[in-house]
Design a protein that fits this description.
With 367 residues, chain A is of the alpha+beta class. Chain A has two domains: 4-233, P-loop containing nucleotide triphosphate hydrolases (Rossmann fold, 3-Layer(aba) Sandwich), CATH 3.40.50; 240-359, RNA polymerase II/Efflux pump adaptor protein, barrel-sandwich hybrid domain (OB fold (Dihydrolipoamide Acetyltransferase, E2P)), CATH 2.40.50. Helices cover 22% and strands 34% of the residues of chain A. Chain A has a six-stranded mixed β-sheet, with helices on both faces. Chain A has a five-stranded antiparallel β-sheet with strand order 13-12-11-14-20. In chain A, a hairpin with a 2-residue loop joins strand 1 (4-13) and strand 2. Chain B has two domains: 13-73, no CATH class; 94-264 and 278-303, Orthogonal Bundle (MetI-like fold), CATH 1.10.3720.10. In chain B, helix 5 (94-124) packs parallel to helix 8 (165-189) and helix 5 (94-124) packs antiparallel against helix 11 (219-235). Classes of the chains: A alpha+beta (367), B mainly alpha (304). Chains A and B meet through strand 6 and helix 4 of A and helix 9 and helix 10 of B. The structure holds adenosine-5'-diphosphate and magnesium ion.
Chain lengths: 367, 304
């Protein structure tokens, strides 16, 4: 089974450069999620892989075939589109069969594939309906079915879940993940939704304005974001970014939280580059890593006592926004363990020493 | 609970009543009068034509063109259809009817066939110089027939079909193609991009996508174009007169010849019936095809 490789891909629309020398390698059988905000070039990249848009420069290889100038139907790919893009005048079965029209198959094989895919997606009862007679979730299944019947090695998904309601989205997420586990095909999945990315991907490529910011497993992306963009894009509520200054270098490294003067103990932080004393840094703290009250001293990285501006309760979780020198620090905790604090109440929270993320404020790169 | 609902329903009723009882103002009276005059301008002559076609010549001789027939007769209609004389031949307008049909079908097939495929290609496929081509088509759509009549005659004669129904059909098809292509192109441009992208990945064949996906989605525009074409081909006089030979003249030309041919008294009732016979087919088409309009051609294809 083939892997997919983009080499030095450039894409321009007139004078607008959307992608500039992009390199990306997708391993065989991988579930790669392209994650990034709207307009960052995800669809463009996927369309170029599918052959629906031309590259301005660079090459695309699938397996050891250079497919850069190949017709879409000859690339051995199947794609599920952002809108369902079903053929409105064809029945569900007609839609699935049309998906096979580029491959020269005999009738029995086509029939077998349609049966297999419709069973797998539980649309076998709907085969004679037209798309207009289906619900949103059913249409989505048909769109996936049309890709599945082709029995290709690489599947492309372009934000297939973005217009489904929340419950259906969770269901389809599991469904697609199950299909990947069962079929072991390579999947390139585009989304702007970090939850989709974190739950489904074997690897995530975070994109911003046409540049891949970081590639890694969901855990790597979450735990060691390479730069400020990735750190702030992943996680909800977003990571707290506070300015700090390195005050002591050497064995016990400490930074001072600028607005409050609270020390941040960095002895457990794995530096990529050793910082200098007096260097300005941005310290990232994830709201969900805070705990209310004190911590054992060796584990504690920072300890704050700050007034609560307001709180948000989402089911069992509470997010409190603490006032800190003009900025807010979000802190999330389980409401079972602590009461919901009132506005103005002073809350004591500590942050674990091994959970900091430090960035250079100028280059925005991880330190 | 029920009380509240009834009260709301009652209130809603009252609002409706209030809306219905709008005051008639001066400007609306002016508009009403104007529209009535417009309607009369068309319908009064039509009324005269219709009643005259059912009258006997005796009653017509008495004048009073607005009166209803004292004795309704279908004889003028029968005579107009099968016996009235156009020039030297006396076979009624029916001869022209069949000729018109023979002109209509080839010209419909040719013009709609070519322009729908061209429109599809221009709208949904990457074509070099598509913009320039569209601009030229746009210009062509506005060239009056009279300007290119003589070159067309030369062209058609060199094809060796001058004076046949094929000549008339071909000229109709050629002249209508620019406009029809623009119409089809604009219609296909609105088909969601991702449907054609999906089709290109699924199949990739220009013709198969057209025949299996695009054409079945074209019902509405086909109806519009059919009405447009049938009306213009059927009602045409000049092209039929110029390119049709003896015996291959469309119904309108036969009708004109009928009306100007007179031996002795002018048979107004027959002329009126002949005119109505000629006018009826497009009307039938108009009302017949209108029923087939479908709603929401892309229903279910895309979300939202
Ligand atoms: N056909 C096009 N012509 C000009 N600009 C385009 C075209 N398609 C996309 N773009 C631009 O390219 C950028 C990336 O678009 P896209 O790949 O659709 O983003 P995403 O899928 O990540 O939301 C956007 O800024 C968009 O405006
Ligand atoms: Mg997109």
């Amino acid at each position: 089974m083939p892997d997919v490789e983009f080499r030095n891909i450039v894409k321009r629309f007139g004078s607008l450069t959307v992608l500039e020398k992009l390199n990306l390698k997708i391993a065989d059988g991988e579930f790669l999620v392209l994650l990034g905000p709207s307009g960052c070039g995800k669809t463009t990249l996927l369309n170029m892989l599918a052959g629906l848009q031309e590259t301005s420069d660079g090459t695309i290889a699938i397996g050891n075939r250079d497919v850069t100038d190949l017709d879409p139907k000859d690339r051995g790919l199947a794609m599920v589109f952002q809108s369902y893009a079903l053929y409105p005048t064809k029945t569900v079965k007609g839609n699935l069969l049309f998906g096979l029209s580029a491959q020269k198959l005999d009738k029995a094989e086509m029939q077998r594939r349609v049966e297999w895919a419709s069973k797998l997606l539980q649309i076998d009862a709907l085969l004679d309906r037209k798309p207009a007679q289906l619900s949103g979730g059913q249409r989505q299944r048909v769109a996936i079915g049309r890709a599945l019947v082709k029995n290709v090695d690489v599947f492309l998904f372009d934000e297939p879940l973005s217009n489904l309601d929340a419950k259906l989205r969770t269901e389809m997420r599991l469904e697609i993940k199950r299909l990947h586990n069962e079929l072991k095909k390579t999947i390139v999945f585009v989304t702007h939704d970090q939850i989709e990315a974190m739950t489904m991907a074997t690897r995530i490529a975070v994109m911003n304005s046409g540049v891949i910011q970081q590639i890694g497993t969901p855990d790597e992306i979450y735990e060691r974001p390479k730069n400020l963009f990735v750190a702030s894009f992943i996680g909800s509520p977003a990571m707290n970014m506070v300015p700090a200054t390195v005050v002591a270098n050497g064995g016990t490294c400490v930074a001072r939280h600028e607005p409050s003067g609270v020390p941040l103990h960095l002895s457990r932080y794995q530096f990529e580059h050793q910082p200098k004393t007096g260097q300005n840094v941005i310290a990232g703290m994830r709201p969900e890593h805070f705990s209310v009250g004190e911590m054992p001293e060796e584990a504690c990285g920072a300890y704050f006592e700050l007034p609560v501006r307001y709180t948000e309760k989402t089911g069992s979780d509470v997010t409190a926004f603490l006032e800190s020198g003009g900025g807010l620090i979000a802190v999330r905790f389980d409401s079972k363990h602590y009461h919901v604090p009132a506005a103005g109440e002073r809350l004591r929270v500590s942050y674990p020493a091994d959970k900091f993320d430090l960035f250079d404020p100028k280059t925005e790169v991880r330190i | 609970m029920t009380v509240t609902i009834e009260a709301t329903a009652f209130a809603a009723d009252r609002v409706k009543v209030k809306r219905r009882r709008r005051r008639i103002r001066g400007s609306s009276i002016a508009i009403l009068v104007f529209l009535t005059m417009c309607a009369a301008f068309v319908s009064v002559p039509l009324y005269v034509v219709i009643v005259t076609s059912f009258k006997t010549m005796d009653q017509i001789a008495q004048g009073q063109i607005f009166s209803l027939p004292t004795e309704w007769t279908l004889e003028p209609w029968r005579y107009a259809w099968s016996q009235t004389c156009a020039g030297m031949t006396c076979k009624g307008v029916s001869a022209g009817f069949w000729t018109s049909l023979k002109i209509l079908f080839p010209s419909l097939l040719l013009s709609i066939g070519v322009s729908s495929v061209t429109g599809y290609a221009l709208a949904l496929w990457k074509i070099n110089w598509a913009g320039t081509f569209l601009f030229i088509l746009f210009l062509c759509a506005f060239v009056p027939f009279q300007i290119i009549m003589i070159p067309l005659v030369v062209l058609v004669s060199s094809l060796g079909i001058f004076g046949t129904v094929w000549a008339v059909a071909l000229v109709h098809a050629i002249l209508s193609m620019p406009l029809l292509t623009l119409i089809f192109r604009n219609f296909y441009k609105d088909i969601p991009d991702e449907i054609i992208k999906a089709a290109i990945m699924d199949c990739g064949s220009f013709w198969k996508i057209f025949l299996e996906i695009i054409l079945p989605m074209s019902a509405n525009i086909m109806i519009v174009v059919l009405i447009l074409m049938i009306t213009s081909v059927w009602n045409d006089y000049l092209i039929g007169l110029t390119f049709g030979g003896v015996g291959t003249q469309p119904m309108t030309v036969i009708l004109a010849n009928t009306v100007i041919t007179s031996f002795g008294e002018v048979r107004y009732n027959v002329n009126m019936a002949a005119a109505l016979l000629t006018a009826i087919p497009p009307l039938v088409v108009y009302f017949g095809l209108g029923k087939f309009f479908v709603e929401g051609i892309t229903a279910g294809a895309i979300k939202g």
